[in-house]
Amino acid sequence: MFFCSTSTDGGKKWSAPVRVNNDPVHDGADQFFQWLAVDPIDGAANVIFYDRRGDPKNRKQTVTLARSTDGGASFQNYGWTTEPFEAGEVFFGDYSGIAGIRRPCIRSLD
Questions:
Q1: If you write DSSP's letter for every residue of 20-47 in order, what string do you get?
Q2: Phi/psi class of residue 10: alpha, beta or left (left: φ > 0; alpha: ψ in -120 to 50)?
């Protein structure tokens, strides 16, 4: 499990930590290689991470997106991938990336 804390004064004071992943506490599942992007338009915090909550053996992972639209006070989790995979004996990287920009809807003038 992992947590996020926010600051509104340039890092002088920080909020109490808020849990980002929403699986049961102490369920033995790993979440790792987290990456954070804040949407510069609407301020939403988007965290992507590898997630093993769906595998009782804690070996296969999916990718989960956690999104906060209330300044980091809470996070909603979404399955980014649906099929669990196991990296096995290969190095599959230790960096992920995400860009968080919500684009406004564009309506046709026709």
A1: ---SPTTS---EEEEEEEE-TTT--EEE
A2: left
pLDDT at residue 85 greater than cutoff 50: yes
Instruction: Point out which residues pair with 36 in neighbouring strands.
Output: 47
Q: What angle do CA 23, 60, 48 make, to 5 degrees?
A: 55
pLDDT score for 28 = 86
pTM, two decimals, is 0.82
| Alpha-carbon distances of 28 from 22, 25, 33, 59, 103, rounded to whole Å | 13, 8, 17, 11, 37
Quick check: 67 and 44 in contact, CB under 8 A?
yes
Closest CA to 53 of 76, 86, 18, 24: 24
The whole-angstrom separation of Cα 84 and Cα 79 is 11
Picking from 24, 108, 93, 90, the residue whose alpha carbon sits closest to that of residue 63 is 93
Condensed to tens digits (0 to 9), the pLDDT of residues 45-71 reads: 999 999 999 999 999 999 999 999 999
